[in-house]
Structure formats: C-alpha cells, structure tokens
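Lesson 9: reading folded outputs for more than one chain in a single document. The general rule is that every protein is listed as its sequence immediately followed by its structure tokens, and records are never interleaved. Here is the first one.
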Amino acid sequence: MNRKLKSFSALIALIVLGTTMTAAPPQQKDPKQVYLDKCSVCHGEDGAGKTAKGKKLKVKDLRSPEVQKMSATDMLNIVLKGKGQDMDAFEKDLGADMCKKLVAYMQGLVKN
C-alpha cells in the first residue's frame, strides 16, 4: 500500500508540475518583433503596405496622415477585433497589453 501511495503521489506531482509549466504565460516579445512576425506580411516592415499581400488587399499605409490621425482607441479596436474578412483579430493571440504596444509602435512609423 505504501508503494502505491508513493507512486500516486509522484504521479500527482508530475501532473501538477506539468500543468504549472504549461499554464505559464508565454514570454512577451518586443512590440517591433511582434509587428514583424504578425503584421509585416501585409503592412510591410515600414508600414507602407507595399507587400504582395498588402497590395492585393489594398491595405492602407500605416504612416499616412489618414491612418495616423486615427485615435489610439480606434486603432486598438482594429488590432483587437480585426477588420473585415482580411485582418485577423489579435486580442486572444497577443493579449490587450501587447496590442496596445503594437498600436504605439505603428503610430511611431510616421513618414519622415
């Protein structure tokens, strides 16, 4: 009986340890790196939207006055919820905090 109890305790410890390890939030990346990973395929590294996919979808230049005059809240809602059928929502994938950081990064892409 004692041997079974030890085995059961060890199994429980492994389950708890495994759950704790997998439940840890992923390490947050730098907003620029997240932008390059998630957004640049359409919007381009510079935000101009001149990528093949960006041209096909007719994405707006993130540096343009039209986009830059949008409020941070409006931009954040687009990043969180997506837009139309072509832009994915990123709230679940990235979390609200990283989405806010992405908006700040995009606002910093202003044309010089």
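And here is the second record, again sequence then tokens.
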Amino acid sequence: MQKLEYNGWTNYETWNFMLWADNDEPTYNKVKALVKDALTIHGVATVSGLADDLRELADSEAPELKTSFYSDVINASIKEVNFTEIAERLLEENPTY
C-alpha cells in the first residue's frame, strides 16, 4: 500500500508529530532545545544527528502501556514518523528554531 503525503509532510504520522511539536508548549520547548543543543555541541547541526535526537524524544515521551492492540498501534505509528524530514525542515526553515 502506497502512503501519500499529508499536509505537505511524508505522511500523517510525521505531520502529527510536528503539529504537537509546534502547538504544545512543553514539546515545542524540548524540540527547540534539541536544535539549540545540536548547534551548540557540534557547531553545525547534522540532519541525521537531529533526527536521532527527535526519535529519542518521541520514544522517551511515549506512555507506558501494557502489551495490547493499542500499544502496538502507537509503536507502529511512531515508527512511521519521518524524523529525517522533520530535522531537515527545522534546520532549513528556521536554523535557530
């Protein structure tokens, strides 16, 4: 099954991550700090490094759920997020985020 773009992003999951990253203040601040840290630590933020940091953020923020259909759906959805695309866009559109 082919996935289609969603609101200018690779897929719904990627769009949804950025929706929360841009509109939920605690998440926005965490993403902003990751971008700032990447620039401070490395001098120039790499897309792959920032993508890895964003993936770790998503994994660490996931709720603890017992094994079930719902936990499987949440985990599958997180795996579909295109963190590389998000990192590229964050660094291209607003390098100081």
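What the second record shows: The chain has five helices and no strands.
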